[in-house]
Design brief:
Elements lengths: L1 E9 L2 E7 L10 H8 L9 E6 L6 E7 L9 H13 L6 E6 L2 E8 L2 E5 L3 E2 L2 E3 L2 E5 L3 E6 L8 H9 L10 E7 L5 E7 L4 E3 L3 H11 L5 E9 L2 E9 L4 E10 L1 E9 L1
Parallel strand pairs: 2-3, 4-5, 11-12, 13-15
Antiparallel strand pairs: 1-2, 1-18, 3-4, 5-6, 6-7, 7-17, 8-17, 9-10, 10-11, 12-13, 13-14, 15-16, 16-17
Length: 259
């Protein structure tokens, strides 16, 4: 199969984007997607997205992790596919699109993409860690050594423990900086490695951080791939609404590949 692809990244979280409005790539197999995402034998990416037609939104987003399997919501992916839709002239500066977890809204302003995430209901605990779902399941733990930690080793130990091994979970290590911003390092299931940034992970860490701060909150989050901002309203320590993930998204390159 001959494929025209586009490469995008959001704070270092990189993706292969395919325009699938004519259903040219609907039948891609798990192995083909995995090969395209391979950094040695393919294009290289944390994941692949299909931009599909939608009957009641601007487009639909279908996301696959680099292991070739369809996955849950990807925040940075949602921001990148918004920019891709603008490049395809599907939208101008605002988008309404469907993802696996429902409807999302996004806006573009000079390369900065703001994505409205779904509401979060409930934060659970696992020892000293927090567990919550921001479109994807996340484990959030505080670690003063987050910047130097072996994220792949420590993250895999949690992701594959008896509690989470069946369905998997994304694991975030958080350090609160002197200026109260957060540093976050994430191990992503489906990639089975550390990624430079994870949008749903950054969102989960920000929400866990403001769990005791009722009202509107703004959290600046630093990752190894760049800086993101999370805005949310804490209703009652358990319910979070008006959640926005904001930050840069960039086109990298386009090309062709046979798989």
């Amino acid at each position: 199969m001959h494929i025209q692809f586009y490469k995008y990244q959001g704070t270092g979280n990189d993706f292969i984007l395919l325009d699938n409005r004519k259903n040219l790539y609907t039948d891609l197999t798990e192995q083909q997607i995995k090969k395209m995402c391979d950094r040695h034998f393919g294009i290289g990416a944390d994941g692949l997205m299909l931009l599909n037609e939608s009957n009641f939104a601007d487009f639909a987003m279908k996301y696959y992790n680099s292991d070739g399997k369809e996955s849950s919501m990807c925040g940075n992916g949602g921001r990148c596919i918004t920019l891709f839709a603008q490049e395809l002239k599907i939208i101008e500066n605002e988008a309404k699109f469907i993802a696996i977890d429902g409807l999302h809204y996004s806006t573009i302003d000079d390369g900065e993409v703001e994505l409205k995430m779904n509401d979060v209901k409930g934060i659970n605990t696992d020892g000293k860690a927090f567990v919550l779902n921001t479109g994807s399941p996340h484990y959030v733990c505080y670690d003063d050594d987050a910047k130097t930690l072996d994220v792949r080793k420590e993250g895999a130990a949690i992701r594959y423990n008896n509690t989470y091994s069946r369905d998997g979970i994304n694991v975030n290590f958080v350090k609160v900086m002197a200026d109260k911003t957060l540093f976050v390092a994430t191990y992503e299931r489906g990639v089975e490695d550390e990624t430079l940034s994870c949008g749903t992970g950054v969102t989960a860490c920000a929400i866990a951080q403001v769990r005791d701060s009722i009202g509107s909150n703004y959290v600046r989050v630093s990752t190894k791939g760049g800086t993101l901002m999370v805005k949310c309203v804490n209703q009652d320590k358990e319910n979070f609404t008006d959640i926005y993930l904001c930050g840069p998204a960039r086109f990298c390159f386009t090309g062709e590949i046979n798989v």
